[in-house]
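Friendly challenge for the regulars: who can give me the structure tokens for this chain first? No prize, just bragging rights.
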Amino acid sequence: MINDKKKYFFLGGLILLYFTLNKKSDKQPEIKTKNKTKLTDKQISFINSILPATKTIEKQLGVPYQFIIAQICLESGFGKSSLTSKYFNFGGIKALKNQPSVKLLTTECKAGICKKVYQNFAVFKTALDGLMAQAKIYSNKYFKKYLNKTNDPFEYVKLLQSGSIKYATSPTYVKDISKLIEIVIKAGF
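First reply, four minutes later:
Bragging rights claimed.
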């Protein structure tokens, strides 16, 4: 059995290898979803840029890659948020004590009541560091019990929200992320 430090070192190497080998096509497909909305070329390009890493995380941890793509797209606005574009934080990861951070406005929900608050979010030096941190969340003490439980991204979301500690605070998280998963799947990812 590989210990956690070696597993994440290995995972990081695989993600880096995939990023290095990933060549983007000049022509991006035109994708339409069920509700007639269309992913833009920039959205498709962003998904293509994270696709190899998400598939590596799926292989290493047993988290459906379509969920990971949808989660990153939801949190980052398809890579447009400053948290992602400037600070390589792909999942809205809160900063730990003494970790480099940036204070940003976010929406937090408790007992169904949502309000805007400032939170300290983790800052990462590289995209690889940010994606590795995202992968670690899936295997933390609260969510590791869901690893390798299902290949179905919709079922995985329900698992993440089923425990006493929820993955997301939004009361509409399952519905919101499921819509994005559907778009990702219909787009052929």
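Strands lie at 101-110, 113-122. Residues 20-36 have pLDDT under 50 and may be disordered. Your move, everyone else.
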